[in-house]
Amino acid sequence: MGGQSLFLPDFVDNLLMAQLENFRLKVFRTVGEHLSFRKAAELLFLTQPAVTLQIKALEEDLGMRPLDRSGGHVTLTKQGAILLRYARKIAAIVSEAEQKLLAREGQLSGILALGVSTTIAQYVLPRLLAVFLDEHSRLQLSLHSGNTDAIVQLLLDNKVSIGLIEGPARQREVRTEPFLEDKLVLIARPELEFGHLSRDQLLASTLLLREYGSGSRHVVETALEEAGFKLKSFKNMIELDSTEAIKSGVEAGLGVGFVSWWSIYKEIELRTLKVVEVEGLRVTRHYLVVSLVGPEPTGAAGAFRSFVLDRAKHLSKSHENTHHLKASSR
Question: Which domains are assigned to the chain?
Answer without folding.
Answer: 18-101 (1.10.10.10), 181-287 (3.40.190.10)
